[in-house]
Amino acid sequence: MKYPMTVGGEKSLRDELVDLKTVQRPEVIQAIAEAREHGDLKENAEYHAAREQQGFIEGRIKDIEGKLSNAQVIDVTSLAANGKVVFGSTVTLLDLDTDKEIVYQIVGDDEADLKSGKISFGSPVAKALIGKLEGDDVGVDTPGGVKEYEIVKVLYV
User: Fold this and answer.
1) pLDDT, tens digit (0-9, with 9 covering 90-100), for 54-78
2) In this structure, what is the dihedral angle of CA atoms 119, 127, 141, 147, given to the nearest 10 degrees?
3) Measured between alpha carbons, how far is 69 from 151 in angstroms, rounded to an integer?
4) What distance lies between CA 14 and its chain's CA centroid?
5) Banded pLDDT at 98 (limits 50, 70, 90)
6) Domain boundaries, given as residue ranges, for the chain
């Protein structure tokens, strides 16, 4: 399975991988060694916590390596989309009910962060937007009914 991601998303995962391997893994190995020196491992909470942390780190390393090996990195700046909403584009929407503007960038699953305006390409909003053009009106199905937006601007940055 391919994992679509932006250039920034790939860099972020690679940075996290380097941190896990060069900083966090050695720290937890040191913590395990120190906890072993305290004696009986059966009742040593520090040892068990460090081992649990080590398991998390190793699992995350495998997860990231798997995603990066199957990554489909899409550089939106190199696409000739001509105003069309595509993966990686940043879209300014006008909520037709409230007249408020909202800005979203359509990104991969691992990059999605609603607080920073990044939505997954698999989200209902992104699915409704992809393939549309600047100036188009878009209806998005929400639990509260259909939400209407106008695509004000599409950027490829």
Assistant:
1) 999 999 999 999 999 999 999 988 8
2) 60
3) 34
4) 13
5) very high
6) 3-74, 76-155
3 state SS for 51-63:
HHHHHHHHHHHHH
* Domain 76-155: assigned CATH number: 3.10.50.30
Q: Give the helix ranges, DSSP H, for 39-115.
A: 45-69
> Burial of 98 by CB count in 10 Å (0-12 exposed, 13-18 middle, 19+ buried)?
exposed
What is the number of alpha carbons within 13 Å of residue 46 lying toward its C-beta? 13
Measure the CA dihedral 54/120/69/75, to 10°: -130
Residues 66, 51 contacting (CB under 8 angstroms): no
Q: What distance in Å separates the CA atoms of residue 84 and residue 50, rounded to the nearest whole number?
A: 49
Residue 41, both tokens: 């491992």
